[in-house]
Amino acid sequence: MVVAGIDEAGRGPVVGPMVLAIVAGNEKALRALGVRDSKELSRKARERLYPLILKSAECVNYVVLEPHVIDEWAASHKLNLLEAEEAAKLMRLCDADVYYVDSPDPKPERFSELLSRMSGRRVVAMNKAERVPQVAAASIVAKVVRDRLVDMLRSEMGDFGSGYPSDSKTISALRSGKIAVECIRHSWGTLKRLKGDGQSMVQ
């Protein structure tokens, strides 16, 4: 039986894209590599595992969702639906008998039903799904790809921190207008609060 896993990186930041990845592969082979939730690994460890996953897996793919796309869906509170649509597209690129997905919905069974209906595939959505090796591998792929994209943004605009709302360096960069508008998620409450305080240089 072919098993695939799907996970994302960068759902929460106010700056930069979100990346959704899929990995289909042998459980034992992926476990042998030492895959686990990308948040539990250092960047060095993720970068080391990334090419090993690409070599070991039967199928790997990902999609990059830019801030303006996220804004369009988040503005109408449909970010989960966007994630489901993009996951369904990835599933069509990687054939498997079952797809394990890290659920963005606090009720995983609801996300399972939605994605199964959209894709016509067997889907098991779970909270903390990274315990499934294929999902853990997908989380690593998504995180590595996103980190590299954010590095490119930093090389163009200077160090703006992690891009997360909790990062004071990111907030300072938003206030100073250091970050290009197309790289910012304007629907995020962080930006709205800064504008309300008269502290944001972003138009």
Please provide a written account of the structure.
This protein is an alpha/beta fold and 203 residues long. It has two domains: 152 residues, Ribonuclease H-like superfamily/Ribonuclease H (Nucleotidyltransferase, domain 5, 2-Layer Sandwich), CATH 3.30.420; 40 residues, Arc Repressor Mutant, subunit A. It has eight helices and five strands; from the N terminus they run ββααβααβαβααα. A five-stranded mixed beta sheet has the order 3-2-1-4-5. Helix 2 packs across helix 6 and helix 4 crosses helix 5. The protein starts with a strand and ends in a 7-residue tail after the last helix.
Top keywords for this entry?
203 residues; alpha/beta; Nucleotidyltransferase, domain 5; Arc Repressor Mutant, subunit A; five-stranded mixed beta sheet; 8 helices; 48% helix; 15% strand; globular; Ribonuclease HII; RNase_HII/HIII; manganese ion binding; nuclease; metal-binding
